Amino acid sequence: MIRHLQSILSLSLRTRLTRYVHDLYLSASPDLRYYRVSGHSSTANGEQETSNGGLDGVEQYITADVESWAASLSGLYGNLLKPSLDMLLFTSQLSRSLGVRGTALLFLNYYATAAILRAVTPAFGRLASVEARLEGEYRRGMGRVGRESEEVAFYNGGYREKDILTKAYLRLIKHVNSIYKIRIAYEWTEDYVIKYLWSAAGYALIAVPILFTRAKRSLGIQASPSDEARERATRDDAVAGRTETYISNRRLLLSLADAGGRLMYAYKDLLELAGLTTRIYTLVSTLHQLPPLQTPQIDAVENAEAIQLQNVDVRVPGSVEEDGIQEMDLVSGLNLTIRPGEHLMVTGSNGVGKTAVARVLAGLWPAFGEGAAIHRPADSLVNDDPSDPRPRPTLFVVPQRSYMVTGSLLENIIYPDTYNDYLKSGKTEEDLQAILESVFLGYLKEREGGWLTRKEWRDVLSGGEKQRLGLARVFYRRPKFAILDECTSAVSSDVEGRMYESAKALGITLITISLRPSLMKYHTQLLTLNGEGTGRWSLTRVGTAEERLSVGREIALLEQKLADVEKWEKRVAELEHMLGAESFEESSDPTEHDGDHDSVSELGGTSENGSEVAITESMLQE
Predict the structure, then answer these.
(1) What pLDDT shows up at residue 609?
(2) I need a surface site. Which of 173, 263, 283, 325 has the fewest CB within 10 A?
(3) Where are the alpha helices (DSSP H) in 478-537?
């Protein structure tokens, strides 16, 4: 019955704490603790923490540590409170028989036992904390292989993953074995102290009434035979009383030793609970103390229609060099205005900060710089679609990595809305089918078995299908502005172009991050990030007179090169004729032939170099 009540108490504690942690961890914007607790670094004491004060392996804290803490705390009654109550009752009973001296010696025995066990008790709390961390590392390794199984299979990296997981498991087992060795030595000492030291001291204590209690005798008076008989009877009654008291005290002593032993055994569990409590406190305090984003608020202007960035410096939050100097800006002094219908394409080489600009626009990264400000329109209270009562969102972001939620096909399309939100929106299954048709996934419902089919979509869909499903979410929500961060890299160019045209037809202003030149024709502005640690950028309009002039110069250069084709063909024929004439003289004068051949090679090399120069000029002009 007690174990059943402990199980119910453990489940209740875990449920309450899990809900509280979920409210903290899965917080909405602008807190976003689940996002900001991710960047990893190590602290001096060996704990894994993030660069912004977070933790590594949060899933281990929220799942296994919370469960272990609740089970350990619920077991305190059976392991700690009941033995404490038994010791209090048995001690009070013994103190009546032992008197003041016996009671003082009894408490001295308690103090000596506690001092000895405290001196030899290892740091079980710290050991339990380290064990939980190593268990989390091994669990994350197994989860990583499950999530990235296809990539590992392509690389044939099973042997390497086996080596990594085996090392993680051996670290865990080595630590657990060390705990077992320490626990064995401690339990030997604990059993010796409780079984032998307490027994020896206990028997000495219960002998106090016998050793120090004397019967009254009459001195100097001649006793009659009747008095002697009465005295013998009194002595016999005293011996019987002492024997009864000894036996009663012995039983109380055994019960007291059992309660004390269970209490001492619970001390180890109490230390382990302290270690788990430390980890729970670390989790909760870290989530509470995450520093806020040091960025000006993104002003949602009621009557504004454009997104504006003023004097914004883009850099990695919290990143400093070893000497304490702040790292260079990815983009410096960015001033940008994106009006409805003026589609923007952000381009540049890899690593220049294209995605960082999207993070700043979405509010995930702070906007640095003196006088930095970000303004964007507020969500529309009235939707352009009369059948959709929801307000039209201002901004929606489709990231590089396609995220597939655990659920049905319908839930993946409407993500992050719930099914109840979908019912309130007034959308129908026909509308969802039309959305799938617009992203060329009309076959998906029939192939997968219906809207409510639940699968692991991350493994079922191909890379291109997952990217197109991400665009389907854009068509479902119909935001004013949509940031597309390399979200069509696995889609063919013709399908990509049709989806872009469909998005523009819905009145969605596109902010595309891509390296594909073919996408430039769907945009009106081009933001080029130069990179190389300079933070420089340039903003041009697509289709302007300047762009047409640059294209005209390139066409003229290509026509000039085409005009020289006939001249270079004649020169090639002359060189071939010279090489053919020299081949007849090779047997008579090989030395002279070699010299002539070198001269011809030099001429040919000059021609080839000239061609390379022309090609290089063309590449630079492009």
Answers:
(1) 41
(2) 325
(3) 493-505
Q: What does the radius of gyration of the chain's CA atoms come to, in whole angstroms?
A: 41
In the numeric block, which tokens belong to residue 178? 């060390």
Nearest to 162 by CA among 142, 147, 132: 142
Length of the chain: 622
Q: Residue 510 has what DSSP assignment?
A: E
Residue whose tokens read 């995220």: 403
Cis, bond preceding 30 (omega within 30 deg of 0)? yes
Show the low-confidence residues of the chain (pLDDT under 50): 40-53, 215-221, 321-323, 584, 587-588, 590-622
- Amino acid at residue number 279: R
Consecutive H or E run containing 434: helix 429-438
Cβ–Cβ under 8 Å, residues 345 and 338: no
Between the CA of residue 536 and those of 56, 354, 527, 621, what are the distances in Å? 35, 12, 11, 20
Looking at residue 185, its pLDDT comes to 81
Pairing status of strand 481-485 against strand 395-398: parallel
Which residue type, as a one-letter code, is found at position 350? N
CB 391 within 8 A of CB 383: yes
Closest CA to 61 of 376, 319, 388, 280: 280
Residue 539 burial (CB count, 10 A)? 14
Q: In whole angstroms, what is the distance from residue 465 CA to residue 468 CA?
A: 5
Tokens of 268: 């180890």
pLDDT at 491: 87
Looking up tokens 């007849």 gives 584
Residue 461 is which amino acid? L
CB under 8 A, 24+ apart: contacts of 161-169: 165/138, 165/141, 168/134, 168/137, 168/138, 168/141, 169/138
| CB 279, CB 311: distance < 8 Å | no
DSSP class of residue 140? Answer: H
Show Cβ contacts of residue 415 under 8 Å, excluding neighbours closer than 6 positions: 403, 405, 473
Tell how many helices (H) and how many strands (E) occur in the chain.
23, 14
Task: List phi, psi (to 5°) of 292.
Answer: -70, 160
- Tell me the sheet residues that pair with 398: 484
Question: What pLDDT score was predicted for residue 126?
Answer: 81
What is the model's pLDDT at position 613?
42
Q: From CA 265, how far away is CA 291, in angstroms rounded?
A: 42
Question: What does the buried/exposed string (b/e) look like for 598-616 if buried means 16 or more CB atoms within 10 Å of the residue's CB?
Answer: eeeeeeeeeeeeeeeeeee
CB under 8 Å to 324, separation ≥6 — which residues? none
Q: Give the CA-trace dihedral at 231, 232, 233, 234, to 10 degrees.
A: 50
- Identify the CA nearest to 108 among candidates 248, 199, 205, 219: 205
Beta bridge partners of 548: none
The tokens 């709390």 sit on which residue? 125
- Tens digits of per-residue pLDDT, 365-388? 888 888 888 888 877 666 666 666
Question: What tokens appear for 299 in the block?
Answer: 């002003």
Check if the beta carbon of residue 321 is closer than 8 Å to that of residue 327.
yes
Supply the DSSP symbol for 65: I
Sequence-separated (6 or more) residues with CB below 8 Å from residue 586? 593
Q: What are the residues whose beta carbons fall under 8 Å from the beta carbon of 165, sequence distance 6 or more?
A: 138, 141, 142, 145
User: 597-603 contacts: CB < 8 A, separation 24 or more?
Assistant: 600/575, 603/575
